[in-house]
């Protein structure tokens, strides 16, 4: 149901993680995701812990799904000295090419516990269906297909 668009994206993600680089608008960090089919829906879940829901942008143009989010530093009280800062900040983005068999007009999104879950229905034209075949000469119809 999805198609990978950049074979080097995983290498970039690993390098950014090793170098501790934070994402920028011109070079965002990739966000981890899971994708699976559940009944008549395709589900994609993105990990975005600590991201304000207002800082998440989901866009679909043709069959290209783009998710962008920004995790900003939290305001610290005066006199606070940071001892350790390992949580990544900055801009996160992921683009996923969706198959033509998905109904991109009816995507539903939910954000809970730091996970953005998108549910994309399987298009009616992609679902299996029975085809009615009429027998030659007698006008009766027989259902074929699964």
Automatic annotation (TrEMBL):
This is Hsp20/alpha crystallin family protein. It comes from the Bacteria. Pfam families: HSP20 (PF00011). Belongs to the small heat shock protein (HSP20) family. InterPro entries: A-crystallin/Hsp20_dom, HSP20-like_chaperone, Small_HSP. PANTHER family: HEAT-SHOCK PROTEIN 20 FAMILY MEMBER (PTHR11527). Residues 24-136 form the SHSP domain.
């Amino acid at each position: 149901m999805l198609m990978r668009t950049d074979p080097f994206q995983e290498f970039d993600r690993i390098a950014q993680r090793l170098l501790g680089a934070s994402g920028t608008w011109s070079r965002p960090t990739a966000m981890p995701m899971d994708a699976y089919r559940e009944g008549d829906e395709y589900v994609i879940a993105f990990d975005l812990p600590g991201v304000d829901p207002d800082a998440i942008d989901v866009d679909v143009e043709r069959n290209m799904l783009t998710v962008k989010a920004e995790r900003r530093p939290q305001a610290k009280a005066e006199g606070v000295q940071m001892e350790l800062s390992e949580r990544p900040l900055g801009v996160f983005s992921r683009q996923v090419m969706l198959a033509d068999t998905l109904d991109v007009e009816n995507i539903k999104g939910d954000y809970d516990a730091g996970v953005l879950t998108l549910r994309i229905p399987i298009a009616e034209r992609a679902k299996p269906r029975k085809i009615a075949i009429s027998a030659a000469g007698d006008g009766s119809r027989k259902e074929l297909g699964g």
